[in-house]
Design a protein that fits this description.
Blueprint: H1 23-35, H2 38-51, H3 57-60, H4 65-77, H5 79-95, H6 112-115, H7 125-144, H8 147-150, H9 152-157, H10 159-182, H11 196-207, H12 209-220, H13 222-246, H14 251-255, H15 260-271, H16 281-286, H17 291-343, H18 353-363, H19 377-384, H20 394-407, H21 421-424, H22 427-436, H23 439-464, H24 470-495, H25 497-502, H26 504-525, H27 537-546, H28 552-555, H29 558-596, H30 611-614, H31 625-636, H32 641-652, H33 657-701, H34 707-713, H35 737-744, H36 746-758
Subcellular location: Membrane
Pfam family, one: Ion_trans
Protein name: EF-hand domain-containing protein
Length: about 750
């Protein structure tokens, strides 16, 4: 799926605007850019600049701009196909037969009970090959399609496009190699290694802007991390040498600290507290005073050195993130400048009041601006004219666009039923619209959720007790499911599907509701014909997931507002970093399956006495991709992670096994995962501060309009009727991730800007 080609001041990690154009405004902007007049085009460019999507500035200046715009929007309309293709490529790793498996179906890896496999069904090698070839063909179209609207020169001069082409060629070559392996006439009988699974992960990363920004940020802080990691290594080397000397002639030295290498190994694991207190029990049994050394080591290492590492890395992380925000804002200003050039067709370097008035009226297509009479345009023009020269230059136009994006919501698209005005504006339908938009309707939905919660609790309890009354409560849940369908249909009819789909909460409700209703209907109508629907347990899990909507009740409670608000804001911001963590796990899992696949099984003579066998960890292995991902998750949370490291070294007999586990710990846990934790903590404190400041400002202002709003209202004759749905003025833009990030990174952003100005 293609990234947003036109970055903006919004955060690069904002998943709502990541890699595509918002569907709720695509149609209007497409028509304006491809076939509108210059004012309609400029207004669409202003709107897409705020969203961070659209055509590159270079394309905007091309003479065949309208033709390129049409091709670009065709490309955007295919985003669901691009996204599905990337998803299939990534998930293909989970369903491929591991390379070490050489037996025939239905058990290509042998007895599942013997080899402790993950349980997911395998695609045959031929099915995997067909699916991969199809994905490569679609990926090739996706990769080279931008040539149509960017042009050959711009495409091949872009480093990102060159990287995409290189990865496509590598994946295609690996697929051809796999074809020779799968073909019965092929000369290759055994394939111990494949490059394709690694390339798939890289292709997903380079095609998603949020993940690319994560990689760019992490690469920027790598130097600082290596510096502080060297200090950590010196601490471990010195502490291990000291421990080796102190316990040389003790039981500790004779059992666990036999050599300096053994001591360094055990002390490094102790730094992660994974083997605490087992590793120093022999010394403690012999002398209670030995606890002084280990307690000081743990306190200094875990609570000082570790936090020092985290502080240095996080400080560097904030600096890199600030650079991304500044770059995005600069790109946004470029687009606004291009819009200015489009309006200033005579090259005067300024806009007059007639031009501003026409632009202002066109911007109302995308923003909930109040209605302004023609005679008020002149007052607004003078209010915006900071220089007092009766001309609006680039900077003043940018101020206007910033004020609009800060103070006014996105305008809704017309609902489909508005095409039938006699029905849409009839008395009965107006009453229905008022009801659906009222607080009463929301309270009814919350009441349904509470009833649903009680029904799920009772039905689950009766199921555990094997009571025959369980069936009646299942019918209650089934009926509630259709009530949710009624709620969904009413909202879609009243608001329109595009406006309904704009909300992440509505998208969650839609997917859950449709899935549950379809599943329940098939379960009760065809219980014996479809085996998959014979098990009703998974439907209960979806019902419980739907109850997550009850979190909206927490927002109504003062004490939980900050916590819930921070959580909801951080979800889109953290998703790219969690996505990078998942991609790293996929990368290491592929390596683990290729290196350790098939060695953990009943009957392996190396297993008895190993750490894996003694701790009954054989079911968690790298025999296939699903099993390996479970192991890596355990390593990610550092729960007894050294047991797998010791166990696999014992089973393989290879000394390099330790590097696999240590590299994953350093990269995924010490470097990335702790970074996410630190970001969550600071975001929570920043949100608390913003919440307190907003409350104080609300009380102090007592309803006074801000300077920006006063400028937009002009001389006071602007309509401010609160009943007008187009007058939804926002006091501050504190309800999105951008405001939170800009608050956290305010000092770093100013520092970055000053450095660029001085450079």
């Amino acid at each position: 799926m293609e990234e947003a080609l036109l970055p903006s001041g919004s955060t690069p990690a904002d998943s709502r605007r990541q890699d595509g154009v918002e569907s709720t405004v695509l149609g209007r902007r497409e028509r304006a850019i491809a076939g509108g007049d210059r004012y309609q085009k400029a207004a669409a460019m202003v709107d897409q600049a705020d969203d961070g999507v659209g055509l590159p500035v270079e394309v905007l200046k091309q003479p065949n701009f309208e033709h390129c715009a049409k091709l670009y929007f065709w490309f955007i309309w295919l985003n669901p196909i691009w996204a599905l293709n990337l998803t299939i490529l990534l998930l293909l790793n989970f369903f491929e037969v591991p390379l070490w498996c050489r037996e025939d179906f239905p058990n290509p890896c042998g007895d599942p009970e013997k080899f402790y496999l993950g349980g997911l069904p395998y695609l045959t090698r031929t099915e995997s090959l067909i699916l991969e070839v199809t994905c490569v063909v679609i990926l090739a179209v996706h990769t080279f399609f931008p040539i149509a609207f960017n042009g050959n020169k711009l495409f091949w001069d872009t480093r990102l496009d060159n990287i995409k082409v290189l990865l496509l060629v590598l994946l295609a070559g690996d697929t051809i190699f796999n074809l020779v392996y799968v073909a019965p006439w092929g000369p290759i009988e055994h394939l111990p290694f494949r490059l394709g699974p690694y390339i798939r992960v890289l292709i997903v990363v380079v095609n998603l802007r949020g993940l690319r920004d994560c990689v760019k940020t992490l690469a920027g802080i790598l130097g600082d991390f290596l510096d502080i990691a060297a200090l950590l290594l010196l601490f471990l080397l010195f502490s291990s040498w000291l421990a080796f000397i102190l316990f040389e002639d003790t039981i500790q030295g004779k059992t666990l600290f036999k050599t300096y290498g053994d001591t360094l190994y055990q002390m490094s694991i102790l730094y992660t507290t994974s083997n605490n207190p087992d590793v120093w029990l022999p010394a403690y049994k012999q002398s209670r005073f030995s606890a002084i050394f280990f307690v000081i080591y743990i306190l200094f290492g875990v609570y000082f050195v570790a936090n020092l590492v985290l502080s240095v890395v996080y400080d560097s992380f904030k600096g890199q993130l600030a650079k991304l925000l500044v770059e995005a804002e600069n790109a946004r200003q470029e687009v606004l400048s291009a819009a200015f050039d489009l309006l200033d067709d005579q090259g005067r370097g300024y806009l007059d009041k007639q031009q501003c008035g026409k632009l202002f009226n066109e911007i109302k297509t995308y923003r909930t601006l109040p209605h302004i009479a023609d005679e008020d345009i002149e007052a607004i023009f003078y209010a915006l004219d900071d220089s007092g020269d009766f001309k609006i230059n680039r900077e003043e136009l940018a101020d206007l666009c910033n004020a609009i994006s800060l103070k006014f919501d996105k305008a809704d698209e017309p609902a489909y039923l508005e095409k039938f005005p006699r029905l849409y504006h009839s008395q009965k339908f107006e009453a229905l619209k008022r009801f659906v938009r009222s607080d009463l309707f929301e309270k009814i939905v919350i009441g349904m959720l509470l009833v649903n919660l009680v029904a799920v609790i009772i039905e689950t309890t009766l199921d555990i007790q094997n009571s025959t009354s369980q069936k009646s409560w299942q019918y209650v849940e089934f009926a509630l499911g259709w009530l949710y369908v009624v709620e969904m249909v009413l909202k879609v009819v009243v608001y329109g599907f595009n406006n309904y789909w704009r909300s992440a909460q509505n998208r969650f409700d839609f997917v859950i509701t449709v899935t549950i209703v379809v599943a329940e209907t098939l379960t009760y109508t065809l219980p014996n014909k479809i085996n998959f629907f014979a098990n009703e347990e998974w439907i209960r899990y979806l019902l419980i997931a739907r109850l997550l909507r009850l979190t909206r009740l927490l927002v109504l409670m003062e004490r939980y507002q900050v916590m819930v608000s921070t959580f909801l804001k951080l979800i889109p911001s953290l998703m790219p970093y969690l996505g990078i963590t998942f991609c790293i796990m996929c990368f290491f899992c592929t390596l683990g399956v290729q290196a350790f696949g098939g060695i953990i099984y009943d009957g392996n003579p190396r297993l008895p006495g190993s750490a894996i066998e003694e701790n009954d960890y054989m079911v968690k292995n790298f025999n296939d991709f699903p099993s390996g991902m479970v192991v890596l998750f355990d390593l990610l949370i550092t729960g007894n992670w050294h047991i797998w490291m010791d166990g696999f070294q014992e089973v393989t007999g290879k000394w390099w096994t330790q590097f696999y586990f240590w590299s994953f710990y350093v990269l995924a846990v010490l470097f990335l995962f702790n970074l996410v934790v630190a970001f969550v903590l600071e975001a929570f404190f920043a949100e608390m501060e913003m919440h307190s400041t907003a409350k104080e400002s609300e009380v102090a202002s007592d309803g006074d309009s801000s300077d920006d709003e006063q400028k937009l209202q002009g001389n006071g004759r602007v309509s401010r009727d609160p009943r007008d749905p187009r007058n939804k003025v926002k006091r501050a833009r504190n309800d999105n991730v951008s405001s939170l990030l800009n608050h956290i990174l305010s000092a770093e952003i100013e520092k970055t800007r000053s450095m660029k100005e001085n450079a």
